[in-house]
Structures are given as C-alpha cells and as structure tokens.
Specification:
alpha/beta, 8 helices, globular, SDR_fam, SDR family NAD(P)-dependent oxidoreductase, oxidoreductase activity
Length: 249
C-alpha cells in the first residue's frame, strides 16, 4: 500500500454507517487499516457491521446535539479521540414545495444540515484540541445543481448548506483539522430506490449521466478514503464531486 493511503491505527467515526454509502465507507476505511466506529441510530445494525469489520458500534441520533457531544466524549475517554469523522447520515423526502409538510421540511434540514454541524462540533472539538484530524462530509450533487424531475427542495437546500459549512470549518480549523466533502451523484442505495422504481424518473437520471449508470457505493467510499488519508494532506475546503459527469453537462 502507498503509505499516504494507509489508515492503520486511526480511529474513524462514520455516521449513518450501518447501510448504503455509509456501510461501504466503513468497509473501505477498515480495509485501509482504520479502526472504524459505526455510528447509527439503528444500534443493532451498527453492532452487526462493527462485528464484521472488527470495529466499534456507537448508536446515537445526529439531530440530538447533546447526544453527539456525549458520544464524542465517551469515545475519547474509552478509546482516544477520533481522528477521522465522516458525516454520512442523511434522509430525503420528495414533495412539491407548495405541498410539503413543514414538519417534513424541518426533519430533512435537521438531519442533513444540523446533524452535520452537531457532529462536526462534537467530534471536531477533540480533533482541534489534539491538533490533527480529517472531517469528510457527505454532500450531494444536489448541493451544486438542481436535480429533476423529483421535487426535493429541502434536501437540495440542506446539501448546499453542507458545502458552505465544509468550507467555513476548513478555514476556521486550518492548520489543525482538514475539512472536505464528497458530493455523490445518483448512487445505487436505499435512498434512490423510489426514483429507480419510477421509469420516468430513472430514465431522466440516466439520460443526464454521461457515464450512463449509477455509482456503486464503494466508488463513493474510495473518494472518502482519499480525503481522509494523508494522500490529501494539502486538500481542505474542497467538495469532491463523484457523479459520472452529471454536473459537467
């Protein structure tokens, strides 16, 4: 292995780590040598994956700021502070803006934007104190362009917020902690099941992707591993788009 990609001995926390892209990220980071903490609201699923990859399970809800602080403090006390944080937890709800229930709007913003801030602050304070660390936020092409035909203004707005939060923290914590984001395009996970079941949506998606297919979760995870590693030692405040060319058109 090229030494800059080696994560041996590093403690890595992945939120929303029990399924989809998060599961792939946990697996890839473990393959690179990291000790991975699978953080997920579903404690049983987190524990199951942690056993598979010889990692740790840490169940908590990213929308609960106090729970995030407690999880970070407990982890640091028992195993030392995490030096890698991947903010992957996210949800999407498809509803026209004139009809969306405001509770659903708030829930999407709460998980996808507030949750990223809560975990960045909770785990980031330990990284900043230690003077080292790498944060990778999972954004989306939806934070860069308006996707269609599905209506999802709340998700788009939240991911745009994640992009600028990433850049803001990168500047604040420069010289101590690197903060970057990966912006996946359409990926074959549970999150895109609804769209893949609708021929009119799915055909529109594929027509807009020059590579003509969805990403596999592992392809996103490998980009995360790069940003988490020393191979990206001079990369901070960046949003790495992994979308098969979708946003290049």
């Amino acid at each position: 292995m090229i030494r800059e990609f080696d994560l041996t001995g590093r403690l890595a926390v992945v939120t929303g780590g029990a399924a989809g892209i998060g599961r792939a990220i946990c697996t890839v980071l473990a393959e690179a040598g990291a000790r991975v903490v699978v953080a997920d609201r579903n404690g049983d699923a987190a524990a199951s994956l942690a056993a598979e990859i010889d990692g740790l399970a840490l169940p908590f809800d990213v929308t609960d700021a106090a729970a995030c602080e407690m999880a970070a403090a407990d982890l640091a006390a028992q195993h030392g502070p995490a030096v890698i944080l991947v903010n992957n937890a996210g949800i999407v709800m498809n509803a026209p803006s004139l009809e969306v229930d405001l509770a659903d709007w708030r829930r999407v913003i709460d998980v996808n934007l507030h949750g990223v801030f809560h975990t960045c602050r909770a785990f980031g304070r330990h990284m900043v104190a230690a003077g080292r660390g790498s944060v990778v936020n999972i954004s989306s092409i939806c934070g860069e362009v308006t996707v269609h035909p599905q209506p999802q203004a709340a998700y788009n707005a939240a991911k745009a917020g994640v992009n600028l939060l990433t850049k803001s923290l990168a500047v604040e914590w420069s010289g101590r902690v690197r903060v970057n984001a990966v912006a996946p395009g359409y990926t074959a996970t549970e999150l895109t099941l609804l769209g893949r079941s609708k021929p009119e949506w799915f055909s529109t998606w594929l027509a807009g992707i020059p590579m003509g297919r969805l990403a596999e979760p592992r392809e996103i995870a490998l980009a995360v591993a790069f940003l988490a590693s020393d191979a990206a030692s001079y990369v901070t405040g960046s949003v790495l788009t992994v979308d098969g060319g979708y946003t290049a058109i």
